[in-house]
């Protein structure tokens, strides 16, 4: 691992292989990593690299499905003005008369709603003797929304994956 790589590790899943078809359901494990990437031009985008609750179907060559992307910050996270989704102030304290103004509504009403992502896993190699399986993946998932105050960006992630069937 380097500072340019991230890993999701120790995950358990129900995997069913029926002929050439496969179903994959992620159950638990270290299935997320808080990550920030820098786009060309310098903008930094925070996102939660995850495949939480991934449910995929396909063939032994490739399977795909959707997963849940939890909020980058939980509902009890407070922004610098003390506002949060489940705790803290309802609005910026310095602006009580304008707290319900339309231009401040997105900043004041915090949200920790989960969003959806999708992934495709391609299988490159299977070793029946050891139960090892590996390949490449491509995932598209939403970025952080700053607790609902800005729209998410779609983040595309590609990488290697490995598993051992037991």
Task: Characterise this structure.
The chain is mainly β and 166 residues long. Strands 1-2-5-6-7-8-9 form a seven-stranded antiparallel β-sheet, with no helix packed on it. A hairpin with a 4-residue loop joins strand 7 and strand 8. The longest helix has 7 residues. The chain is elongated. The chain starts with 8 loop residues before the first strand and ends with a strand. The model has no long low-confidence stretch (mean pLDDT 83).
- How is the biggest beta sheet arranged? 7 strands, antiparallel
**How many H/I helical runs?**
1
Mean pLDDT: 83
Q: How far apart lie the N and C ends?
A: 26 Å
Global structural class:
mainly beta
Strand order of the largest sheet: 1-2-5-6-7-8-9
Global Rg: 20 Å
Task: State the main characteristics.
166 residues, seven-stranded antiparallel β-sheet, two-stranded antiparallel ribbon, 1 helix, 49% strand
Q: Could you write a compact summary of the structure shown?
A:
With 166 residues, the chain is mainly β. Helices cover 4% and strands 49% of the residues.
Question: How does the SSE layout of this entry go?
Answer:
Layout: E1 9-18, E2 21-30, E3 32-38, E4 44-50, E5 55-59, E6 62-69, H1 102-108, E7 115-127, E8 132-142, E9 154-164
Antiparallel strand pairs: 1-2, 2-5, 3-4, 5-6, 6-7, 7-8, 8-9
């Amino acid at each position: 691992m380097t500072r340019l790589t991230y890993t999701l590790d120790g995950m358990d899943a129900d995997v069913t292989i029926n002929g050439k078809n496969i179903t994959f359901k992620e159950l638990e494990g270290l299935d997320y990593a808080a990550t920030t990437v820098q786009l060309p031009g310098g903008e930094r985008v925070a996102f939660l690299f995850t495949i939480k609750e991934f449910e995929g179907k396909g063939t032994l060559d490739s399977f795909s499905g959707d997963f849940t992307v939890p909020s980058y910050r939980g509902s009890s996270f407070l922004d610098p003005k003390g506002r949060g989704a489940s705790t803290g102030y309802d609005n910026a304290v310095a602006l009580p008369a304008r707290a319900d103004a339309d231009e401040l509504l997105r900043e004041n009403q915090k949200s920790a709603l989960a969003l959806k992502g999708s992934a495709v896993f391609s299988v490159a190699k299977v070793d029946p003797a050891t139960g090892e399986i590996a390949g490449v993946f491509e995932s598209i998932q939403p970025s952080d929304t700053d607790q609902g105050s800005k729209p998410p960006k779609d983040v595309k992630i590609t990488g290697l994956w490995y598993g051992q069937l037991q």
